């Protein structure tokens, strides 16, 4: 049986006249996109441009909600209540869904960004808030998450879950990501990233920063579009996976 994988990146992460990364070039390589919804990056014009580009290329559209932390790029803990997390997710998703509807399409997945994405993996109250929002918004919605509290809460709510493998981030022995504030948290060597990704998808393991082999059953591989050389890195990852016999396809087309 051919192994399938989705290839996703965080896109639309500019603001006003400022742009981050080469989204247009990345979209020629990806099969899905996590689109910033305004709280950590993005605005109405950028969301519109990004959704239109996804539709033109047949790329799956996902909401990428964050803590309300524009200055900190969503990477700070804002000390919110679970109810605040829920309403902030609803607000951001609604904005992107309206733009998607205008372009004759819909948002098919939800992937929390930055510090929110880290905390929903370990905080049950945040995970339940995001899962409840997603389930009420659209029972067919896919929740992208690492193994942890959000994945569990989404499954309990009857939602499909796409487990994310992150190509260019170092892992702790327990399967969580190394904090960005620590040395070596982000991997920059393209060949190492390509090797790690193929091993993660084909063999189902990834090596922690301490050399521990961690089981990973990922459905989608995340490439960070804001890193240097992101486009070429995405191309190399895709080429490596295809050379290993992996089919690259949008998650919503095949995830059961």
Automatic annotation (TrEMBL):
Alphabetical list of SUPFAM superfamilies matching this protein: Glycoside hydrolase/deacetylase (SSF88713)
Tell me its EC number(s), please. 3.5.2.9
Q: What does this protein do?
A: Catalyzes the cleavage of 5-oxoproline to form L-glutamate coupled to the hydrolysis of ATP to ADP and inorganic phosphate.
Reaction(s) this enzyme catalyzes, per UniProt: 5-oxo-L-proline + ATP + 2 H2O = L-glutamate + ADP + phosphate + H(+)
**Signal peptide (residue range):** none
- Protein name in UniProt: 5-oxoprolinase subunit A
Organism source for this protein?
A: Microbacterium galbinum
- Say which family it is in: Belongs to the LamB/PxpA family.
Assembly notes = Forms a complex composed of PxpA, PxpB and PxpC.
Alphabetic keyword roster: ATP-binding, Hydrolase, Nucleotide-binding
The record's annotation in Gene3D superfamilies points to: Glycoside hydrolase/deacetylase
Family matches, as CDD domains: LamB_YcsF_like (cd10787)
Q: Which principal EC class is assigned to this enzyme? A: hydrolase
* InterPro entries reported for this sequence: Glyco_hydro/deAcase_b/a-brl (IPR011330), LamB/YcsF/PxpA-like (IPR005501)
PANTHER family, alphabetized: 5-OXOPROLINASE SUBUNIT A, UNCHARACTERIZED PROTEIN YBGL-RELATED
Q: Does the keyword ATP-binding apply?
A: yes
Sorted alphabetically, which Pfam families does this protein's record hold? LamB_YcsF (PF03746)
């Amino acid at each position: 049986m051919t192994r399938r994988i989705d290839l996703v990146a965080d896109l639309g992460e500019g603001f006003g006249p400022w742009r981050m990364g080469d989204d247009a070039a990345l979209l020629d390589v990806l099969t899905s996109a996590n689109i910033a919804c305004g709280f950590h990056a993005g605005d109405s014009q950028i969301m519109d441009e990004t959704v239109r580009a996804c539709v033109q290329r047949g790329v799956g559209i996902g909401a990428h909600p964050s803590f309300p932390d524009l200055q900190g790029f969503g990477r700070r803990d804002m000390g919110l209540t679970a109810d605040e997390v829920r309403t902030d997710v609803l607000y951001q998703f609604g904005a992107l869904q309206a733009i998607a509807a205008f372009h004759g399409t819909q948002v098919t997945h939800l992937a929390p960004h930055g510090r929110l994405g880290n905390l929903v993996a370990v905080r049950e109250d945040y995970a339940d808030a995001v899962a409840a929002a997603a389930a009420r918004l659209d029972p067919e919605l896919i929740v992208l998450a690492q193994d942890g509290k959000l994945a569990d809460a989404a499954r309990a709510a009857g939602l499909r879950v796409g487990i994310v493998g992150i190509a260019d981030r170092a892992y702790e022995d327990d399967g969580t990501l190394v904090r960005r504030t620590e040395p070596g948290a982000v991997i920059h060597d393209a060949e190492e990233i390509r090797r790690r990704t193929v091993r993660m998808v084909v063999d189902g393991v990834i090596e922690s920063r301490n050399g521990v082999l961690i089981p990973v059953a990922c459905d989608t591989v995340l490439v960070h579009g804001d890193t240097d050389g992101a486009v070429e890195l995405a191309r190399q990852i895709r080429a490596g996976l295809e050379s290993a016999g992996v089919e690259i396809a949008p998650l919503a087309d095949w995830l059961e």
